[in-house]
Design goal:
Layout: H1 2-17, E1 26-34, E2 39-48, E3 53-55, E4 68-71, E5 77-85, E6 89-93, E7 98-103, E8 106-115, E9 122-129, E10 131-132, E11 141-148, E12 177-185, E13 190-199, E14 204-206, E15 220-224, E16 229-237, E17 241-245, E18 250-255, E19 258-267, E20 274-281, E21 283-284, E22 289-290, E23 293-300, E24 305-306, H2 315-337, H3 345-356, H4 360-389, H5 391-398, H6 401-418, H7 428-438, H8 442-456, H9 458-473, H10 479-500, H11 513-541, H12 548-566, H13 583-599, E25 648-651, E26 656-659, H14 662-672, E27 676-681, H15 686-695, H16 699-707, E28 710-715, H17 741-753, E29 757-758, E30 760-764, H18 781-796
Parallel strand pairs: 12-24, 26-28, 27-28
Antiparallel strand pairs: 1-2, 2-8, 3-7, 3-10, 4-9, 5-8, 6-7, 9-11, 12-13, 13-19, 14-18, 14-21, 15-20, 16-19, 17-18, 20-23, 22-29, 25-26, 27-30
């Protein structure tokens, strides 16, 4: 508030003392661009005198007056979203002592509206703004704005949103993400290439990190570097937002409003002045996804500003991941304490230190050294694992098919060991040698006592340690070291505490059969977790051997058997005779039984949100839309497709004959005399899946798709490379080649239909002429059916 008062006072005093000096450094112009039949962009353009700057619509509290637009709304139109603005300049303002965004020379503001009354001709508005130069600020000013709607003015239609020359008023080519580039200089030969994405309201841009399962297309950077330029590390990105995607059933990271990507480079040749890159990305809002887009970026090294090596701005997210590994490992260490191999050692070891020490203080000291030795041993193990495989390699291994299979096999072996079939032990000679070294006494002897504990207890701790390392590997970096630190701290802490307070030993429960129960429960959990890795490998290979129903059935069997075990209905080889079950065991048994019952509806298509991160996604299923809806389970009659035409396949789960090649689908339609429905879609298109799952399954729609049209589904995000003979020049990006199949279909949609959103449906005849106006996302099944039938009727006429 103080900064704002100072600015206003200075502005008022300035205006009072400058009788003959009236400044008007900002002039405003208005224009209108037609986007579609009923949508327009109201454009307010500010021309700013040299040396002056106009503030953004969004400024921090206690800062200068922001630019604010007010529109006189009425029943003739409605506002769509907020007024958007250009990128501008963001600086650390020395006057206000805060980061502020402003504009110089020229600034453009856009407000989209939807016209509800065709008679609308003028939209009135007002802009409030403040301008400053390096010496003074002017008082807040107000300017009336009038936007004239000219419905037949084709020269203004779609200009801003159609970079491909479409001016027929039907263009719906959207550009919700705009890119800019800059360079920061770190030293004489080190630079940071900064790529900044400005994202329109309600749209989001996906992260560079691809989901482990099928999901949206990630953002990618390809830098054109030759001799003399070396990339240092990977391109870092902002923290972004991570959400649980309900359609894909996986966690997805994306950015809103703005995103910054940074790539550090080292330049060995002083003659190099520019570096080029290509960024590929996909943008979506709540209704539609755009085709994957590729933009060229130029980084001018001669215009580099002084910068600092910020590293990756996603460190906070990585730190959270490491904290989660530490906490899980720490809790796992406490669980390991309750196993038969470790728990009995606590009173024995602590008593030994107290009796062998000359004083209580020395006993406590020795116990602390013992605990620290345990930590050192396990952390050393994590460090060795990371050093052997490399920080980045661990993450790559964790997402590799074969290593997922190896992890599955390891966890199954660990589980069977915990269940009592055998024990995983290290060679006895190791324990004997450690014991001999422990007899030496002193610090070395205490360290080897800790090593002996680690070796002897390996049959219980080994599977837990192995599981932690497997999970930590999926995080990459130093996660294995952090995991072992958490685990070993939990193991070491009791020895130190009980040595300091030996009276607490009396409160420890006595060893008994309950220790083996803990071990068995861990075995069941290890077995359930193992199938997550097997499922991951199956998903990547698309073998469909472990589909959602099979996975859930396996988990029901595992947790159902665990429930019977906890309730005393099943006994395993090492269990003590059970005369009664404790209250804690009963409650745990009821919890696992409830969980088992909860999973049963998942066999019939229930989403099971509690465990959504573990089973395969809903669409990776024998019955993606639920039992009773599979194999065209609506009762409609499909044509006989026993002899599929060239290029055709049956689209699961309803056996719709579909083509993924435009020419082959068109040829077949001419052969059978049916109209063509082109489905511009994408593997990562959320609303495409919604249409297929919620609209296409309706009996009347499904019957039409199966019997009355020829469906051609063109995936605009198909990342398979085009055959060499089909690689052609891009018509939208001169000088570039079409590399992927998806780019071919994306260009077809953009050039022919002047839109780049999915889903997009076209009904056409054999001359490739539209039978009816194409439509996009249409969640109303009746409306979609009417569109289909009207188009088919026009074909028959």
């Amino acid at each position: 508030m103080k900064n704002l008062i100072i600015t206003l006072c200075a502005a008022i005093i300035f205006s009072m003392t400058s009788h003959a000096q009236i400044f008007e450094p900002v002039s405003w112009e208005t224009s209108v661009e037609k986007i579609s039949d009923d949508e327009y962009d109201l454009i307010a353009t500010a021309t700013i005198d040299s040396g002056w700057h106009l503030y953004s619509q969004s400024v921090p509290e206690d800062g200068p007056i922001p630019t604010t637009f007010k529109y006189k709304t009425n029943a003739n139109f409605e506002l769509i979203g907020k007024t958007i603005e250009e990128e501008g300049h963001t600086i650390d303002d020395p006057v206000f002592q805060m980061v502020i965004k402003f504009f110089e020379d020229k600034a453009e503001f856009r407000q989209r509206i939807k016209v509800l009354n065709e008679e609308l001709s003028i939209v009135e508005g007002e802009v409030e703004f403040m301008v400053c130069d390096d010496e003074k600020c002017l008082p807040p000013d107000y300017v009336d704005l009038n936007f004239t709607i000219k419905k037949n003015d084709a020269s203004k239609e779609g200009v801003s949103l159609s970079p491909f020359g479409a001016t027929d008023g039907t263009s719906q080519i959207l550009e919700p993400v705009k890119w800019s580039s800059s360079v920061e200089k770190l030293s004489d030969n080190e630079y940071v290439l900064v790529s900044k994405a400005t994202i329109d309201q309600n749209w989001h841009l996906y992260s560079q990190v691809p989901p482990k399962e099928a999901g949206p297309i990630p953002t990618t950077f390809e830098y054109e570097v030759g001799e003399g330029v070396e990339l240092i590390g990977k391109t870092s990105e902002d923290k972004g937002k991570t959400v649980e995607d309900k359609v894909f059933g996986i966690k997805v990271k994306y950015f809103e409003n703005e995103a910054e990507f940074r790539q550090k480079i080292k330049v060995a040749n002083a003659d190099i002045k520019t570096v080029k890159a290509e960024v590929g990305f996909m943008a979506c809002d709540d209704k539609q996804c755009l085709t994957p887009t590729f933009i060229d970026l130029d980084y001018d090294l001669t215009k580099a500003v002084k910068g600092t090596d910020k590293g990756t701005s996603d460190d906070e997210g990585e730190n959270r991941g490491l904290w989660s590994i530490f906490i899980v490992a720490f809790l796992s260490g406490f669980v390991a304490l309750l196993t038969p191999c470790v728990f009995p050692m606590i009173p024995m070891t602590v008593s030994f230190f107290i009796k062998q020490s000359q004083s209580k203080a020395k006993g406590i000291r020795n116990a602390i050294i013992y605990g620290l030795s345990i930590v050192v041993i396990y952390v050393l193990l994590g460090t060795i694992i990371t050093a052997i495989f490399g920080a980045d390699a661990l993450n790559a291994l964790a997402t590799n098919v074969w290593f997922n299979l190896i992890f599955f096999a390891l966890l199954v072996v660990f589980a069977i060991s915990f269940l009592g079939a055998f024990e995983i032990v290290l060679p006895n000679s190791w324990a004997n040698k450690a014991d001999k070294q422990a007899d030496r006494g002193g610090l070395v002897g205490i360290f080897f006592m800790a090593l002996a504990l680690a070796i002897v207890s390996f049959s219980c701790t080994g599977p837990i340690v192995g599981t932690i390392l497997v999970e930590a590997a999926s995080k990459g970096g130093i996660a294995p070291v952090i995991g072992m630190l958490g685990f070993s701290l939990a193991i070491a802490l009791p020895f130190t505490l009980f040595a300091a307070f030996p009276g607490w030993l009396n409160s420890l429960p006595k060893s008994g059969g309950w220790l083996n129960t803990v071990k068995v429960v861990l075995g069941f959990l290890e077995l359930a977790l193992a199938f997550k890795f097997l499922s991951q490998a199956d998903l990547v290979l698309q073998l469909h051997l472990l589909e959602r129903e099979v996975f859930i059935a396996i988990w029901i069997a595992i947790f159902g058997t665990l429930s019977l075990y906890l309730l005393g209905k099943i006994q395993l080889p090492h269990d003590s005779p059970l005369k009664h079950i404790s209250v804690g065991r009963l409650l745990l048994g009821l919890l696992t039984l409830s969980f088992t019952i909860y999973m049963i509806p998942g066999l019939w298509g229930a989403p099971l949100n509690i465990i959504s991160a573990f089973p395969p996604p809903l669409d990776y299923s024998e019955s993606p839309y639920g039992v009773g809806n599979s194999k065209g389970g609506t009762g409609t009659t499909s044509a006989d497709h026993s002899d599929l035409p060239d290029g055709g396949h049956l689209l699961a789960p309803h056996d719709i004959l579909a083509f993924n090649d435009y020419d082959k689908g068109l040829a077949y339609a001419k052969e059978v005399g049916k109209p063509i429905m082109i489905d511009f879609t994408g593997w990562a298109c959320v609303n495409c899946r919604k249409m297929e799952q919620n609209v296409w399954v309706k009996p009347n729609v499904l019957s039409t798709l199966k019997n009355d049209v020829v469906l051609i589904s063109l995936y605009v995000d198909d990342k398979r490379k085009l055959p060499e003979g089909e690689v052609t020049d891009s018509k939208l990006r001169p000088g570039k080649k079409l590399k992927y199949i998806g780019q071919k279909w994306s260009e077809l949609q953009t050039i022919k239909y002047k839109t780049n959103t999915q889903p997009f449906y076209v009904l056409m005849n054999h001359n490739e002429e539209n039978l009816i106006k194409p439509v996009g996302y249409t969640p109303d099944a009746d409306e979609y059916y009417d569109w289909l039938t009207n188009g088919i009727k026009n074909f028959e006429e």
